[in-house]
């Protein structure tokens, strides 16, 4: 017996499943915003014609203009749903699971600048959970360099943030380092350069021996030796626990 699936190329079938076909026009910003808010809150309401799965891209920018650039980049996308705030928001794009990170990177490449993005993927019924994941990942990312982040790239930090008693202990441990700007700068540079002393010293424009001295002080204050990959991960997570910022996302 021949089925519809037998008679259509697989790519065409996936496109029909994943692409919405009954959305309000892109000019109807308010309706699209309400639809995005409804889906992200976990209320599906049996909407007809929507994609079965979405990439949820949470974003924030250092300026209002940066956030506006993200909105401009998807303004003419007939498939995009957007819930926007002043300096951050959410973009929902229909896609298969293996495409969500690529879509986020494409969007970031179009915008650039001081913009942070966190992307998660979920079937439509699980978009509220994807929103929560993307929001926590974005909080972690906001303390790092601009770019696109996924859960797998910040997993240790993510787990700690979900365990408040652990986060509190780590925050207390790193407090003496945070209170001394030269030590904090040295540790952040060392982390950013993946434990490469020479590169971290160049980043800070200081002599390597000066960096080594500051890292020894970090070890004395925390009990964690930065030269150890495991200890460096602990120190990195502790910094996240101490100073993970709230991000300007709409409710």
What does this structure look like?
InterPro entries: CdaR-like_regulators, Homeodomain-like_sf, PucR_C-HTH_dom, PucR_C-HTH_sf. This is PucR C-terminal helix-turn-helix domain-containing protein. Pfam families: HTH_30. With about 250 residues, the chain is an alpha+beta fold. The protein folds into 2 domains: about 5-155, Alpha-Beta Plaits; about 160-245, Arc Repressor Mutant, subunit A, CATH 1.10.10.2840. Helices cover about 55% and strands about 15% of the residues. It is built from 12 helices and 5 strands. It has helices at about 5, 10-20, 30-40, 65-75, 100-110, 125-140, 155-160, 165-180, 180-190, 195-205, 210-220, 230-245; strands at about 55-60, 80-85, 90-95, 115-125, 145-150. A 5-stranded mixed sheet has the order 2-3-1-4-5. β4, α6 and β5 (about 145-150) form a beta-alpha-beta unit. The longest helix is centred in the middle third of the chain and has 15 residues, at about 125-140.
In a few lines, what is going on in this structure?
54% of the residues lie in helices and 13% in strands. It is an alpha+beta fold.
Task: Summarize the SSE layout with pairings.
Elements: H1 4-7, H2 10-18, H3 29-40, E1 53-61, H4 64-74, E2 81-84, E3 88-94, H5 100-111, E4 115-123, H6 127-141, E5 147-149, H7 155-161, H8 164-178, H9 181-192, H10 197-204, H11 208-222, H12 229-243
Parallel strand pairs: 4-5
Antiparallel strand pairs: 1-3, 1-4, 2-3
